[in-house]
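Protein modeling request. Please complete all fields; requests missing the sequence field cannot be processed.
Requester role: graduate student
Desired output: 3D structure, token encoding
Chains: 1
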Amino acid sequence: MAMLVFLAFSVLQIGLYKLRETSVVETVFVEHQKQAFWLAESGLHDGLVLINFDKDFRDNPTPVPTTDASAVGGSYDIGVVRTLVDAFTDEYEYTITSTGTVRGVTRVLQSIFSSFPGGKYAIIGINGNTELDALVEVDGAIAQISGTLDVADSRNLDGYLIMGDGEGALTDKKGVATVANYPPPPAPVIDFGDYEAAITKVAINTNYPHTGTVYVNDSALSGNLYYNADQIIVGGSGTTIADGTTIVTTGDITFPKSHVVIGENVTIVARNFSIANQSEMGGGTLIYSQNDIYLRNASDTTTPGDSAIVLVARNNVTFDSQIEFRGIIFGENEVEINANGTIEGTIIGGTSVEANSNITIT
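Delivered output (362 residues):
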């Protein structure tokens, strides 16, 4: 009887030991899973930094060496694949895959995001001053290559601040922002030659004698339209411009009426460009102005498609409007945003970027 009791206790002890051993193994496995997850998270962060701030890597992602994490007996590996999204704006989609490994346990995480030329910068100030009001929210990096960056409320910023090596300075009224230790991007350069040549070609063409003001009252415009005039006023409310239309004028072009619809892949080249109430621009549209681009009076500029819009002004770009915009805004002198809404893409100002309204830039 005593032998049977002893045997029963022995079997029970073995069972308890095995149960405890299994529990320990499971606990260690779960802990390794957690560690592998956070190593994979670190890899995603490293991949994003490479894409944002290493131009050579961004242009041609190369294999990234394995990163050791000896503290937990693990490592992580990063892979980046670049896919062309929009050849018109040179926009790419980057897929970052990060694998964290701890003692044979792996976790794989993936992140996908789009990058406009120069990296995913929300704002690039080339010279002068960038000034952001307290209501402005920015999700993305801000690069001030030279000059000053004045931030009213850095709690609304979600991204790196990058300052150039010149006499640039950061004014942060809330004292929250920090400057990342990354070199600023090269100053973006726009080749204006083709647009200027198009204007000159119209100006010297004897088929287009110079006139003063031209009123265009057609409800629909399409094809290739050329005007050698001081001012073109497109007068109809609800005017539509067909996909693929090109308009070149030696003077100003104005859309004073509401609900103008500019189709996709439209090109407009002018001395000055302005558009008003609740207008739409399709994806792939390019607006080039020798002087100013002005979107005013509650314009609601949207992109129905996936392609971006490009606004290029040799002087100023001004938004005085309710705006939903996706693309690139380049003002060789100044970009001024007095608009509520959202801008997805990159704002580039030659001497000044000023945003003083309830706007989100991402």
